[in-house]
Amino acid sequence: MKRDSAEFKQRIFDLMNGSLDLEELSVPESEIVKNEFEEGGICAGLYQDIYDAKKRICKKLGVEEDSDVELIIGNLLEIGERQSMKMYDYGRIFS
Q: What's the chain's Rg over C-alpha atoms?
């Protein structure tokens, strides 16, 4: 797989986010790329803070789920993914 392909970049992103089940799908890049959401890690803690805040907001609103909160979280995740893909491209350009 070519390192500048969209598929490869997505694989790296998925590894970083812990989205790949490495017991089911072994990929060589997993030897280098760290799951940034491993328990006890910074990203895991930040995500837990987001989840807890979401629950508090929903409790204040008296709802199980709020579409505006979900939109905010979803869009921020999308922004992070797009920036990650561009940062990968820039890394390849400048290296």
A: 16
Q: What angle do the packed helices 67-94 and 42-61 form, to 10 degrees? A: 160
Cα dihedral 24, 27, 30, 35, rounded to 10, equals -50
> Do 14 and 20 form a contact (C-beta atoms < 8 A)?
yes
Does 64 score more than 90 pLDDT? yes
Q: How far is residue 49's CA from residue 52's CA, in Å, rounded to a whole number?
A: 5
C-alpha to C-alpha distance for 66 and 33, rounded to whole angstroms: 34
Q: Retrieve residue 65's tokens.
A: 């789920």
Q: pLDDT tens for residues 12-53?
A: 999 999 999 888 888 999 999 999 999 999 999 999 999 999
Both structure tokens of 18: 């812990």
Confidence of residue 84 (pLDDT cuts 50, 70, 90): very high
